[in-house]
Sequence to fold (177 residues):
Amino acid sequence: MLPGITDPVQAASLGSVWKILGQMFRGIESQTSHDVLIDLGRRGASGPSGILAEQADAVFVVVRNTMRGLQAAQGRVRTLEEQIGDVSVVMINEGPYPSGEVQRVLQVPVVATLPYAPKDARVLSDGAEQPRHFTKSPLMKAARTATTLLIQRAAMRRARLNPHEAGGAGGEVTHAR
Fold:
């Protein structure tokens, strides 16, 4: 676990570190077949830390299917598409728009959908107390399905970009919201 920075301004001071981190993450994947997930936050995929997104096997933007969520995501998704291409969306099903509409608006595929479940999400993000049947909750069921889809998507991109390395089991997955 590598703690994130608390202020985007700090990213510039780590300029020389980002490329080394990317190489280190690649080494983890190739030596141990573990996946590396990086949350670059709302701005982390641009600027100095953007190299992590550029080196990733897959980049996913988490988007709520609300008017506000789609409007906020449009510019980020467009910028990521221009920088690295092949961006996909993980949709949080909070609003009225179906995945097809989200795809149409953002012009990138929705590869997985998670239910809007703030109480269950707090268990994962904040360490809140686990409800009795947490592992069988709709969020956790959807997360298991989504994990499989995200790994498949990363493997497909890896195979296209590096056909000689496609046999590896793991992969670096970057998630930018």
